[in-house]
Design brief:
The protein is an alpha+beta fold. It folds into two domains: 86 residues; 67 residues. Helix content is 45%, strand content 17%. It is built from five helices and four strands, in the order E-E-E-E-H-H-H-H-H. The protein has a four-stranded antiparallel β-sheet with strand order 1-2-3-4. The longest helix is centred in the last third of the chain and has 19 residues. The radius of gyration is 16 Å and the shape is globular. The protein binds zinc ion. Zinc ion binds next to loops.
């Protein structure tokens, strides 16, 4: 049984996968995408940026993304073509999140002026396209995609 979402979430492409409690907080889980390609989302608050996403984290066993991925598969929203090769542990996950926050803080001054914001988006898209082309680069591409979304919500 899927419990209705607790928080406001405004993406029409997302399919709700119900609530999931992780480290003392309720997360609303979603699948966003097609059967072939997409991502898992875990929202933990009503504010726009109060969510995390990353199919690669789910594939590597990191909660709450693993739970979202399992539900997306069992609910028929996603057909994985490959099973995970490795897992990352909680310490590695914290490092990855910390790097993401630092990089986010670094780029925010760029976003005060439109030309720089556009240039930044262009450069990021180039990095995403380069990384997304191979399996090993997907985690890195996911970081850049998150930064792109960060840049968009910061405008
Ligand atoms: Zn969505």
């Amino acid at each position: 049984m899927i419990t209705p979402p607790k928080y406001t979430h405004d993406c029409e492409a997302c399919k709700s996968l119900g609530q999931f409690e992780h480290e003392g907080a309720v997360h609303d889980l979603y699948w966003c995408g097609t059967h072939e390609r997409g991502t898992v989302i875990a929202r933990f608050g009503n504010d726009g940026p109060d969510y995390g996403s990353g199919l690669v984290f789910g594939e590597r066993g990191v909660q709450p993304y693993k739970e979202a991925l399992d539900r997306a598969i069992s609910g028929g929203f996603y057909n994985p073509t490959k099973r995970p090769l490795h897992t990352i542990d909680a310490a590695q996950m914290r490092v990855a999140q910390a790097i993401g926050k630092v990089e986010g803080a670094l780029v925010s001054p760029w976003l005060f002026r439109d030309e720089e914001s556009e240039l930044y988006a262009y450069l990021l898209q180039g990095r995403i396209d380069k990384c997304a082309a191979d399996e090993e680069g997907r985690a890195e591409a996911a970081v850049y995609e998150a930064m792109m979304r960060y840049a968009e919500v910061s405008k």
